[in-house]
Amino acid sequence: MKNNKKAQFNEPQICEVAYDDDEDTKCGIGPFQGDWLQKFANKQSYIIVYSIIGTFQSMFFTYFVAVLTTIEKQFRFKSRTTGVVLSGNECSQILLSLLLSYFGGQGHRPRLLGIGMLCSSLACFIVIIPHLFYSPDTEIPLTNQNNLTFTCSDSRAPSSNDCGQPDYTDSIMPSIFLFLSQFVSGIGSTMFYTLGIPYLDDNTKKTKAPMLIGITSCLRLFGPTLGFLLAAACLKLYVNVTDQPFFGTTDPRWIGAWWLGFVAVGLLLIPAAMMISCFPRRLPRKQTRISSSGVYRQVSRQSSSKSNSPANSERPKLKDFPMAMKRLLTNKPLMWNNVNNVFTVFAISGYITFLPKYMQAQFQLSASNASIVNGIAGIAFMAMGLLIGGMVLSKLQPRAINVQIYMIVADLVYIIIFGVFAFVGCDSKPLHGMRSDNGLINPISDCNIDCSCEGLRYSPVCSEDGEMNFFSPCHAGCKENSIDSMGKKIYTDCSCLAFFNSTSNAWSNGSVTSGICDGNCMTIFYIYVLSKGILQFFAGTARVGGTIINFRCVDPKDKAVALGLGTFLLSIFAFIPGPIVYGILIGESSLLN
Questions:
Q1: TM segments (predicted)?
Q2: Residue 103 belongs to domain spanning
Q3: Does residue 116 sit within a domain?
Q4: Which of 55, 161, 195, 214 has its CA 20 to 30 A from that of 478?
């Protein structure tokens, strides 16, 4: 018994320490490579910093989507124009993703990631250029003036010559800048995805990679949440923050300070880019230290099971690019995975892009409230799905075919249920005077034909019983207006209400208030939010598996370019046509346009 204890005491104690000390494994840039930085040269620090830049980078797109309806309103974009603007991101990915991933995948990936994040920061500042040179719609009144009440009066109602239909020619230059912003942003997102994840995979055990990728993806989803919440806060401010119009955020004429959030995100991305650039070309590997003998044993790349084989350190050559493409295009598991992703993304890309607009129309939400709902509902559930999916893959290590089958089933269910969601919503209150025979709206009727309402812009009001919307107070036949004790504008003596069974109240008989009528369908709305969250969770569990399949079915040196190929295919077959097709369909719909 004593001998056993002695043997146990003398058994060498093994621990791991970093052994590499060359320039490729040192943290920092140029002369800024102090010893205090080297303790951050590990995958734990990389996961934290990579998640931070992912959070800020993903905030850009979700914030852009959240303020999309406000940008459309200020610059009078049509939905089809918006679809084209959003395709700028994919245009850059089509042109550059393959080359960036091929050459960058075997270069100094952290520094290239830093350059990509600076591109995303630049995109944030490009997008606000239209705001600096194009003021908001000057026909929106900023003060409560009597000559801007739009009531039924020949002397007050402007003629059709003064207020014609919206002129879309003024939106050409803003749309060009917005497209350019998306194009530059696409460079940053391409580098983030095709270089950042392979860098993590190359420095991680195969068995731990799914869990760590799941954690990284989960943390990155804070970005969409913060992006939507930031949009909700900014859209509560008027586009010119020093002005305050007499109507509130729920009024269709309200234009929020959409540009403000882009400034914040752009500034956050600059220090984030500097942090990721400080990581070395490759993280230091480990060695085994045997304390009893003082001998250090290097863990070789071939014999160690603690990390995947890193990318080929040889400088890539352009002449080898066609061979790399041939290897990937003839790789059946990789291509089937890409086909599945293309069909799924095409089916839902337009829906996701125009989701805030859809929710504003279907559930009568303001732009800021729609952003809050999108930031909380679904994204938190998807984050849990990504985390659990990565943990399950690390624990069970299923066969690739089983992972692909699960992905196909999950994506199919995802598409079908999302299609059903398109028919979920509140029963919209009718607009008085709507004519559906030719799809056009004619709000002129017998009760307001003498009010000279022609040419007035859309300024909706709701009847006092909450059951009927009118195009404007003039179209409701209202002759007077006043402000109640709560500061709310009320239009009275409205002749068109005689056509309906409006209930009387304390104001006066036949009155309307600014804004559209509330749908009063919160039960349906909560069911929608919960169902969407569960669906996002289910879809999230399949996402990590797709990334792992891409890595394990290709040569280690092809990891980055395999992701680049997937990005290229998604852009050309899903992300570009998806929003454009949805934009055209929405443009033809009087409900959302």
A1: 47-71, 83-105, 112-134, 176-200, 212-238, 258-279, 334-352, 372-393, 405-425, 525-549, 561-585
A2: 35-144+170-346+558-587
A3: yes
A4: 161
